[in-house]
Amino acid sequence: MVKERFYKTEVVPRCLTFKRPAGTSRGVYTTRKLWEVRIRKEDEPSVIGIGECAPLPDLSCDYGVDYEITLSKACLDLEQKGHVDTESLRHYPSILFGLETAMRHYEQGGWRHYDTPFSQGQAGIPINGLIWMGDYKYMLEQVEEKMKEGFRCVKLKIGAIDFDRELSLLKHIRAHFSAKEIELRVDANGAFTPSEAMDKLKRLAEMDLHSIEQPIRAGQLEEMARLAAESPLPIALDEELIGCNAPDEKRRLLETIHPQYIILKPSLHGGISGCTEWIHLAETILGSTPEQPKWWVTSALESQIGLNAIAQWCATLGNPLPQGLGTGEIFRDDKHTLIQRKGDTIWFTNDL
Q1: If you classify domain 8-108 with CATH, what class do you get?
Q2: What sequence ranges are listed for the domain Mandelate racemase/muconate lactonizing enzyme C-terminal (predicted)?
Q3: Domain range 125-348, CATH architecture
Q4: Helix or strand or coil: residue 121?
Q5: What are the start and end residues of each CATH 3.30.390.10 domain in the chain?
Q6: Which residues contact 12 (CB under 8 A, 6 or more apart)?
Q7: Active site residues
Q8: How many other C-beta atoms can be found within 10 angstroms of the C-beta atom of residue 22?
Q9: What's the predicted TM-score (pTM) here?
């Protein structure tokens, strides 16, 4: 007997090309592999839900040689149950994110996932201007471009070149703009060793920075807890959250380190449902409030489909901080145009 299926799913692999090589802590990306999940019903073939599963090699906890097999099984499970089994997908955040947002797209009947001013095209989301890793000249060019474009928050990825040269970039910004005019964030991606980290944090703090993401590599809980307690510069966790998927693990991590901020990336940190758990824990453990949130949302090199889903959800949260969301401008061959940047904000356009 053939078991009745609630939905019909289709998985479509895609490979996008960056407009220019993207330097990250895991090397330089020239292409981006991802999988689109498409959901339909047999009796309503014209109604579709599309989500994006986009794990990052050597970073995502669910990326591996059997990724497509796991994704296919998750899709079959959705077909048979009629809903996304979030508990069974806790340890597969990029798959969970893709299926959650595909269902949201299907249920809402379009790319407008929620009823917010952002989803209505009436308001934008403020974002930070991202300075990609590279040599000094390239990073300086980006800094000057972001300053001309009027960004009020700029984030520099550091740890790729000489530390003193990176400090000079920060000094260059501060020579033109005070902390009240431009908020500066840095992301070390775990580049510092525990023995040198405090000295570097003190020197960075002289630049009147907002925060530093992941100063030392993930997994050194005692050292990170010491830095979070003693650093003159607020510390935000990013990679530290990857692979920490169960509620008790999340609680233990935040209670142990007690960072000043956490960075939430749905594709890496548990999908929409998992990141919502992180937010609730930040409220109870870190003292996060709507007026002074201890977290913000960041995208992770998704295409327009994934970026739109993250931005749509982010807009429901009311976080006043500049978010780390992409601009939708990084790929040559992204076929959708859902998110566009205007100055230092992103807007939903729904222009297909």
Answers
A1: alpha beta
A2: 136-234
A3: Alpha-Beta Barrel (3.20)
A4: coil
A5: 8-108
A6: 35, 36, 37, 38
A7: 157, 265
A8: 19
A9: 0.94
